[in-house]
Specification:
Blueprint: E1 5-9, H1 14-25, H2 31-38, E2 46-50, E3 58-62
Parallel strand pairs: 1-3
Antiparallel strand pairs: 2-3
Length: 72
């Protein structure tokens, strides 16, 4: 499988973004696997896959379980 593109929210949480990327690099191969790993530190984390077949995989990663505004 191609490595997914992660759309992480909130983008301003550098530790959350770095953890999500690191877990992908270590082998999280599905949205549910990434979500399980993230929830060890961020219990509300949710990962959803965008299901368009003609593009590289894109996963939306939400720290709070839904989109929230990034800190300025």
């Amino acid at each position: 499988m191609d490595r997914p593109v992660l759309i992480v929210n909130p983008r301003s949480d550098e530790a959350f973004v770095a953890l999500a990327q690191a877990l992908i690099e270590r082998g999280a191969e599905s949205p549910s696997a990434l979500e399980t790993e993230l929830r060890q530190r961020y219990p509300l984390a949710v990962v959803r896959e965008r299901g368009l077949t003609a593009e590289a995989p894109v996963w939306y990663v939400y720290r709070e379980g839904q989109w929230i505004p990034s800190a300025s």
